[in-house]
Amino acid sequence: MVEYAIKWTSSPYDGDEADDFNPEFPREKNNCANFVSQVLRAGGWEYEGGVNPYDTSNWTTNLTGPAGPSRTWINSAYQYTYVRNGSYGWLDNIWNAVPGDLLYVDWDPDGRADGTIDHVMVVTGRSLVSGSPRISQKTLNRSNIPLTQSIAIAEEQGKEDIVWYGLKRQ
Is-above-0.85 flag for pTM? Predict the structure, then answer.
């Protein structure tokens, strides 16, 4: 999982243009959940097919019937429900996250949390100096950066009311 996440966020895939994404998977405009789904797939998760894109028991790149990816594959709020009902448990403190854990965030563009998860990132390491988690994500691309840096970037963008939902691998 970690190797996949770092590969697809590092050079030559270190941007958010079409050729920076794995062509084996769909590409979404807001690609964070799609990317984390790819990371989970690289970690051995199996597709869960179905017809209804909003059914949180489906997790796939291509549904039967209407086709296209399930919301659990491409939407961070839906994905959180799917993953939490799977093999991940609640992480009580984001600073305790280890590689393979997932960090979901409610940080709306207007700077205020509204109760809906907006973003997801994968923990890909821990800082040797501070011991804090390092994260990788797509849209916008970040590769193994300190969580403190991710938070600082969000605050610079006016996202000061941040609610975290951490999930740890069981």
Answer: yes
